[in-house]
């Protein structure tokens, strides 16, 4: 897993959609709304809105990943120090 992360091969957002009824229902609602909005406002405006939302979502996910990675690394670092300290005490 660490190798995949280092080489950029870890893409959690590319996971296949799980057979989750709630997720499927939300996706259907979104697809229906997209179709309706395309008819009412035009594809160009909807694409602009969609791209802005995607950019916001990407930045939000990046910030969350950065924060969570720092926390995870901090935990690993603390465990390493505790283990090294207990080994030295032996």
Characterization of the model:
With 90 residues, this protein is mostly helical. It has helices at residues 2-6, 21-41, 43-89. It has one domain. Helix 2 (21-41) runs antiparallel to helix 3. The model has no long low-confidence stretch (mean pLDDT 85).
Brief overview:
It contains 3 helices and no strands.
Strand and helix layout:
Layout: H1 2-6, H2 21-41, H3 43-89
Features:
90 residues; mainly alpha
Q: Structural class from helices and strands?
A: mainly alpha
Helix content: over 70%
CA-CA gap between termini: 32 Å
Question: Could you describe the largest sheet, including whether it forms a barrel?
Answer: none
Helix and strand sequence: HHH
How many domains? The number is: 1
How many helices? 3
